[in-house]
Structures are given as C-alpha cells and as structure tokens.
Design brief:
7 helices; four-stranded mixed β-sheet; alpha+beta; globular
Length: 205
C-alpha cells in the first residue's frame, strides 16, 4: 500500500479524528469548531479525500494567536482549521513510527511516550555515572526559522511517496492570518501544526 493510502485509510483517519476531538482547541480561520467537526467531515469527506489524492487539496491558512511566555515575551502560535488538524494528525501517525526508528535514544523532545521528566531523570543518571556537565540550550525562534527546502530534502531521504511530500509542502506554505491580513509563509512552521507537537496524544501535551 502506498504511504498516502495508509494515511487516508479509514482506521488511521478515525484515530486522527478521535485525537483531534480529544485535544479540543480553538477553531481555525473557517470558524468550524471541534464540536462541528464530525458533521463537517460527514458532508465533505469524499470531496476532501478526492482532492488530496489528486493533489488539489489546499490547506487553509493558520490563525495567528499570541500567548505570554514566562520571560514576559509572547509566543506566536498558529491554529490550523480542525479539518487540517485531522489531516496533519493522520500524516503524523503514519510518519512518526518511521522516524522513531531513526531518532537518537537520547532524544526526548516531542516524542511519543517521552517527557521532560524522563530527560531530567536520564541526566541525573549520567551525573551519577561521572559526567560533570549538563548543557541547556534553547534555540530562539527555531520553528519560525525552519527552512522549507532543507526540511523537504530531509523528508525525501526517507519518504519516497511524492503525493505525501506534496501534501506536507502545501501545509508549510499555506500562510497565516494575522487578524484579517494574510501573510505568506516562505519559511518556518507554525507552532501547533504538523511539525511540532500536534501529533501527541492528549495525555502527553
């Protein structure tokens, strides 16, 4: 089975819907709520799937919101529409197991079944083993500065299904709505979307 068909399988899409519904969250630019999602998909599912398979699907821009950070600054989040969240979740559910096999065992961020607490415990174990240093690095505005071409090149090394790569690229360049103004996204990935933590189960958020 082609990778795209695994993503669009009934079982995978149902699981994606359940996770998006469980995570709740605000509406995107189309104002469709999580509570309205089931009926919306019932009416538009065939059209959505046909458009994806024919590379005609066009993700909606994400809705920009800002939340305060501990240092007094604000973190910018991008809220996709609930339909786009389901599709992103479905993609992540298929791709995550593939990439889990490639990740370092010392990597804990944004990975299923792992947490900050586990990283701290592992750090303490290493200190007890005789290591002297722990380095804490925060890459400022990392998600905002992700190069799309580099990201797609990295994905292409493992993912050979052109339809899947095309769909991911469309999400990257779908743009952002800041109040009522559309802004292009030629670089970066909105926090809250496919390339961040959107795929995590509710109890791991």
């Amino acid at each position: 089975m082609e990778l795209l068909e695994k993503i669009l399988s009934r079982e995978n899409l149902n699981e994606a819907y359940k996770r998006v519904y469980a995570n709740r969250g605000a509406s995107g630019v189309d104002s469709v709520s999580v509570e309205e999602l089931h009926e919306h998909l019932r009416v538009h599912k065939v059209e959505i799937l046909d458009n994806i398979r024919n590379r005609k699907y066009k993700p909606q821009p994400v809705r920009r919101v800002e939340i305060p950070k501990d240092n007094g600054k604000k973190r910018q989040l991008g809220i996709p529409t609930v339909v786009d969240r389901v599709i992103q979740q479905a993609i992540a559910q298929v791709l995550s197991p593939i990439y889990e096999q490639q990740f370092s065992n010392s990597s804990y961020g944004f990975r299923p079944g792992r947490s900050c607490e586990m990283a701290v415990i592992r750090s303490i174990e290493l200190l007890n083993d005789g290591y002297d240093w722990i380095v804490d690095i925060d890459l400022e505005r990392f998600f905002d500065t992700v190069n799309h071409d580099r990201l797609m090149n990295i994905l292409h090394r493992t993912i050979k299904d052109g339809d899947v790569l095309s769909l991911i690229r469309k999400f990257l360049v779908s743009g952002v709505m800041v109040e009522e103004v559309f802004e292009e996204t030629s670089v970066g990935t909105p926090q809250g979307g496919l390339c961040t933590a959107e795929h995590k189960p509710p109890n791991e958020q």
